[in-house]
Structures are given as structure tokens and as C-alpha cells.
Amino acid sequence: MYRLDDISLEHWQVTGLRTRVATLGQGPVALLIHGWPECWYCWREQMVALANAGYRAVAPDMPGFGDTESLELIADYNVSRICEFMAELAQQASGDQPILLIGHDWGAINCWQFVQRHPERVARLINMSVPLRPVADQPPIEFLREYFGDDFFYQIYFQEPGVAEAEFDADPEGILRALYCSPDTPRDPPLLGRSTKEGGGWIGRLGKPTAQPDWVKDEALTYYIEAYRHSGFAGGINYYRNLDENWRQMLPWRDSQINCPVLFIVGSRDMTIQGASEAKLRQMMDPRIPDLHMIMLEGKGHWIQSEATAEVNAAMLDFLAD
After folding, report:
1. Which of 37, 68, 123, 277 is least surrounded by Cβ atoms within 10 Å, i.e. has the fewest?
2. What are the C-alpha distances in Å from 243 to residues 10, 141, 174?
3. Is 88 exposed, middle or buried (0-12, 13-18, 19+ CB in 10 A)?
4. pLDDT reported for residue 322
5. CA 186/CA 317 separation, integer angstroms
6. Any bridge partners for residue 295, and if so which?
């Protein structure tokens, strides 16, 4: 039986980038793509479960995260470049054999886009937290600016180069503690209000947690803090700065179907779905995903693979055994 201590950390050259890759097990490749602000480490429990089920689990730090090199320009963090990175990573790990692809948060976005652009490379897809949404009629940041007006919204805050990363680089523990929370984590009142006219950044608007969730172990929080002290926050935030460009680049696939079997796992209190029911999410995704399986975990939040490790692992293995 494989254990956490058996995970191997290696460095691969992927599209010219020195890339840290965690691996465990033997068999068909399961490629796990993390989100923000995460790194390969968020998948450690799933890697063990997959390896013990007969898979070779492969979890990279994505470009700009952890111990993987950053891309040169902000504009390089676009969907075409990231899919190129994922395609070469899959080729190195699995040759021409289709992979099991797994994503969370921004990793889920990357995986939705990858499977549309490279359907021949993916045998099955497991995505978490971020559903496949219909392609909007206008670029997302343009829409968000109109919708929120003078109200603060983090994705708009991220658009100005140098601003958000300066705040988070100065206090990585502050932002990570404030984000790695359950929906019911108690917090102090925020120091700043909703209006951007007050100035200030995001940490002061989140409210400092007064308790640490049981699933956020001290050693895990320390690992993430050290990872971001090493990499800085700019690389991860640059993905958000390409949302409008990605919208343009994905327009040719706006009506494409995802024909491989797909499992979508989400917490009922994940802010990403804005209170949507399982039925509403199915109605939204069914037209483009004929073979859709879905599990909504009641009361769980955004960091689903850590907050509900046992349930997520069981759902994955049941889906793969089907």
C-alpha cells in the first residue's frame, strides 16, 4: 500500500520550463491540476488513493506556482500556452495513451479547456468546484466591471499588474489563512467595506479567522506559506489577467461537447456556484456533457478535496470503477 511518504518529487523540463512534478504509483496516468492559491500538495491524499487503485498519479506545480518556473510575460498565461504545457506533460507521463484528468478551481478551468481542445488525450475527466458554464456574449472582466461597479471583487482587483501580488507577498500567511476556511469558519469583522473607494486590498475585506478548520493542518499551512514565499503570488494571479483573452481564444469551442465520461464534485456551499442546486448545475452542463456524473457534498465549501477527503476519494474511485 502506498503512503504519503512514498510520493516522489522530481523536476521535468516541460515546454522549456523547469517543472516540479509529484508522482506516485504505477499504471494508467492520472494527471492532477491544482488551482489558486494551491500547488501539487493539495492533491497528496488523492494521489495515495489513486496509486492504491492502480494509477500512476502525476501532480505538477503549474507554471508560476511553487517550484515550477514562471512564464516570461503576463500574456503568456493564456489558454493556448497552458494547454500546450499540459499536453507535453501528458505526453511525457503517458505517451500516446489517453489520461485520467483531474482538476480543482483554476485547475478545473484548465481541464475544461484542455479536454475541449485535446479530446483525444483524455479518457475520463474529474473536475471539482468550478462547473462548465456557457460561453458568455462578452469578455468576463468587462462583464464583472459592469456588474460590480464600485464594489470590490477580487478578480477585478487582480487585473492591475503588481498590486495584488504586492499585498499577498507581504503577508502570505494572512491571505492563505483567510482563504483556507470552511463556510462556517468564525471570523473577526472585516476591516474594510465593500466599496473600492475606501482603498485597500483583499485581506482586510475577508475578516481574520478566529479558528482554524480541522482539515487545515499546521504542517499543510506551513507548506503552502513556504511555497508562496518561494514563488511569490504573481504567477498564479497572471492566470486571472488572461480571462478576457482566454474567452476570445475559446470562442471556436463555445458549442463543443465533452464526450468522455465526466465526474463533477462540488460542495453545496462553495461560493463558486453561488447557491446553485445540483439540478440547476446539471441543467447548465448536460447539453455539452452527455455522460455527466455529479456529486454535491452538503455543507462543504470550496477546498473540497481537503475539506472532504474521504468523500472525494470514494466518489473518484466509484466513478473509475463504473
Report:
1. 277
2. 30, 7, 26
3. middle
4. 80
5. 33
6. 265
